[in-house]
Amino acid sequence: MKKEKIQLKGITWGHTRGFVPMVATAQRYEELHPEIEIVWKKRTLQEFADKSVTDLAKEYDLMVIDHPWTGHAAAQKMVIPFDDFLPETFLADQRENSVGESYASYNFEGKQWALPIDAATPVAASRPDILQELGISLPRTFDDLLALAQKGRVGFSLLPIDVLMSFYMFCCSSGEAPCQNEEQVVREETGVTVLKLFKSLADHIDERFYTKNPFKVFEEMTQHDEIAYCPFAYGYSNYSRQGYARRLLHFHDLVALEPNDEPMTSTLGGAGLAVSSQSKHIDIAVDYARFVASPEIQETLYLENGGQPGHLRAWKSAQVNVLTANYFTNTLPALERAYLRPRYDGHLHFQDHAGDVVVDYLKNGGNERVVLNELNGMYRESLAWEGAHG
Predict the structure, then answer these.
(1) CB count, 10 Å around CB of 377?
(2) What is the pTM of this model?
(3) Where are the alpha helices (DSSP H) in 77-232?
(4) Which tens digit of pLDDT belongs to each residue from 310-338?
(5) Are residues 122 and 267 in contact, defined by beta-carbon separation less than 8 angstroms?
(6) Which residues contact 251 (CB under 8 A, 6 or more apart)?
(7) How far apart are CA 281 and CA 262, in angstroms?
């Protein structure tokens, strides 16, 4: 009698970058291990950010997760710490070849709760053909960016979660990382300056961008010929590959924020591969995760199928950069200085609601101090939530 295959289920997010490399690696893993089948499902980017890892872990063996879930996952023990299952030599290679703080972003309380298979931070994107046609060079400073925005040629995501990440970016770029003490998100002086600066740019962005996530911004840029430049959005190397979209995007480091003339510091994103502690086949799931995160697969099969690797060797590969109009070389400096946002269990409560407050301000104006007070109240609630639920 034919033996039934062992089936593992995985969940990721529904974009080429999130879904296709997981299907491709699962297919290859099955060819190497014919007794095993790994089936991947996808969810929307918003669900990817929102749905509790605890809920997903009851249903799936493998989960591609956002690093802000790390604290929650660690607290609930719904995913396994890889330190207990993988050799230290493998984890040391992952740590040493982390793209920026990607590896550290899944490390909490001294344990590694996911492998950083995907690395991303907000970077700039351009349509070189439109800029050339307009006779405009790539913006280098925030003033250059404002001038281009006033011409109606700039777009970026104004969804609440992306607006909050941009708020963090403006704070970091103004010399103060947010959430460094337990009383306030950021000092009032910094916060007021940052909100005004952010609004001065948002005022020149079409309202339709209040409904677009980063890859929808890139779809807008490649399917139409109006937006020439996106100053910051979580990068998707797919759009820098020939044949993927109607037009090719080039990706760049961020503009400099005067007066320090340093490129801005954005808020780290990316995705990690976690294994449910509820899985009946933890050893197999861990072995597959190791396969996906290995430098060889990251640089070849994973990348070739639309993935955006989390291993530094892939980012530095000449072949990979030829395929992607130098996406990885051009944006690596932004990844290396990206800000690692809080990951404590309660911070998700803040992250889920704070963006709405900033969006309302960008759309309708208001008193910056009132906005900051509201953010501070939510922030303190999130810290109390951590204490009550920790």
Answers:
(1) 12
(2) 0.95
(3) 88-96, 128-134, 142-150, 160-173, 188-202, 214-223
(4) 999 999 999 999 999 999 999 999 999 99
(5) yes
(6) 123, 124, 125, 126, 235, 237, 239, 240, 325, 327, 330, 331
(7) 48
